Amino acid sequence: MAVGGPFMASRLTGWASAARPLLAGEVPSYWGGTLLFDPRPKEDPRDLFDREEELKALRSGINYPVTLLLGLRRSGKSSIVKVLMRQEDALWVYLDMRKFEGRAYITYRDLVQELEGAINSWPERLRQAFRGLRGVRLAGVEVRLSWGPGDRAEISDVLERLSEVAEEEGRRPVVVFDESQELRRLKGYDLLYPIAYAYDNLRVRFIFTGSEVGMVYRFLRLNDPGSPLYGRAVTEINVGPFSRGLSLEFLRRGFEEVGMKVPEAEVEEAYDSLGGIPGWLTYYGFYYMQLRDHREALNKTISTGVELVRQEFRGFLVGREAARERYYTIMEACREGCTWSDVKRALEAREGARVDDKQVTLLIRNLVDASFLTREGDLYRPADVLIRRAFQRQGGSETTHSLRI
């Protein structure tokens, strides 16, 4: 895909000419203008590297009721959404579900309070439109949604009012659930019913992003005849890793922005060690700017990434504690690739007993659905390079116990 353009080039030229060598640990003084190596999600379309096709597809997707934006962790999904939010004059409701990662469950109260916060980010005149709605009160200029029994705000009512307000404003109403796989932890309330109601009757559009692709589908239950969303058409957009060529170009462009000349061999080694996940490449560039040393930046990126993966895996295990050792055994067995039979043998060797075939299939499926493993024909592999490293003993000295901390 084409990257940049005249406006991008002018920004790069301006920054490069003003750049000076950074001291160790120093962050650029011009960080206020977003950079490729800014580890935060991008919001400026000029900084969205080679995601034009995905952005175009998402812009088209919000013409329809439901769009899924799916891809591995740190592939840039949130950046694509935030850039579109900046470009499109829609009535946006952005709900970040990442705050619930690692939680055993989410309550109706949690969900309503997130919705409340999003509505309160609107101008006061729009918030006033919710006055008089059942379960809604205005405390000063802020909207308060009741979540208790008897007088709670119903999400279908809130969506209906949102649709009405947007129509009056001549704008499109869009609700974003970022990392929507966390909604599968919602207890005591079926969110699919108000979504299905909005799908059939309202102008509201929904975007569901997800890093755990299979878990998003489990939550939406699109292929389950008992699901309120069964039979509804959705738009699906997949956000993949960068190719080798694009990864190298991303790193070159990022260093150009800060006026740094980095040897090509170092850029290539960074890709060979980290793969094409934009988030890992961004961390490497960010740490290089701070440390001014390739080896230190690469090692810090790997150690940070491995710890993030392990933290995310511990979150995956919440509610699955009984099978904890089995999941670790599978990930260790699949570091370099494995078949279903390899997994079964590894589990039975560890436990010294027969493991039911259905259990083996279920355990593997859960890891694939959570995007820790990916399937390539009959082989299962870690979904990215640093997931493999997270379950790899260094020099044979790392114990199985240390992987489980």
Automatic annotation (TrEMBL):
GO terms for molecular function: ATP binding. Pfam families: ATPase_2, WHD_MCM. This is ATPase. Residues 48-281 form the ATPase domain. It comes from the Archaea. InterPro entries: ATPase_dom (IPR011579), P-loop_NTPase (IPR027417), WH-like_DNA-bd_sf (IPR036388), WH_DNA-bd_sf (IPR036390), WHD_MCM_arc (IPR048907). SUPFAM superfamilies: P-loop containing nucleoside triphosphate hydrolases (SSF52540), Winged helix' DNA-binding domain (SSF46785). Residues 321-383 form the MCM C-terminal domain.
